[in-house]
Specification:
single chain; alpha+beta; 2 domains; 28% helix; four-stranded antiparallel beta sheet; 13 strands; 36% strand
Length: 201
């Protein structure tokens, strides 16, 4: 299918804060290392297939460093959307997948970037304390209905609360679901969920 023949890669340039979104064919990505450079020339993302795994080098707007991320070739090629995150901030720094889903994820992340710019330097454990409280409350409500499960079959999990997201981690196999908790849109999205499924990348 046409959508399976190409992947869209996206990130925010730390130099100019511009959203960088580009499409590459799976043939090109599999044949050799691909680099996507921001128009300002201040940053680039690199994707390379080695030993059956895709390795990405991603500049990070949030911590100012480069992140090296690895995922299986199967996940990279078959997933509709993958999100790679900054460990320091808990925020997504790169998306790979179908164009529509990647653009939608970048639009959501853009709201977070705008909010982060407006509160930078302000004290606080979370990007938005009220949003985090609401998302945690909804998450606990879903869990109380036995709505949190893992692909491995387990319903046991632990929570890791980040600056603007919550990681729901399987206690049995370590699979994970990341729940955004940065804007009121994130509250609306989790309110619509009946189930959360932890998955391995």
């Amino acid at each position: 299918m046409g959508s399976d023949l190409k992947k869209t890669l996206a990130y925010f340039c730390p130099a100019c804060r511009r959203a960088v979104i580009a499409e590459r064919s799976l043939f090109a990505l599999s044949a050799s290392a691909a680099e996507i450079t921001c128009l300002c020339g201040g940053s680039h993302i690199r994707a390379e297939l080695t030993d059956g795994k895709f390795r990405l080098t991603v500049p990070c707007l949030f911590c100012g460093r480069e992140h090296s991320v690895v995922c299986s070739a199967k996940s990279f090629l078959k997933s509709e959307a993958l999100a790679f995150s900054c460990a320091a901030s808990g925020l997504d720094c790169c998306y790979v997948g179908e164009e529509g889903k990647v653009r939608a994820a970048m639009a959501r992340l853009s709201q977070v970037v705008d909010k982060l710019c407006s509160v930078r330097g302000a004290p606080g454990t979370f990007l938005d304390e009220i949003v985090m409280e609401e998302v945690l409350s909804e998450l606990k409500e879903i869990a109380s209905r036995n709505g949190v499960s893992c692909e491995c079959g387990s319903h046991k999990f632990r929570l890791s609360v980040n600056f603007s997201s919550i990681d729901v981690v399987c206690a049995e196999c370590g699979a994970m679901a990341r729940i955004p908790a940065a804007t009121m849109d994130d509250v609306e999205r989790i309110c619509c969920k009946n189930h959360i499924i932890m998955k391995k990348i």
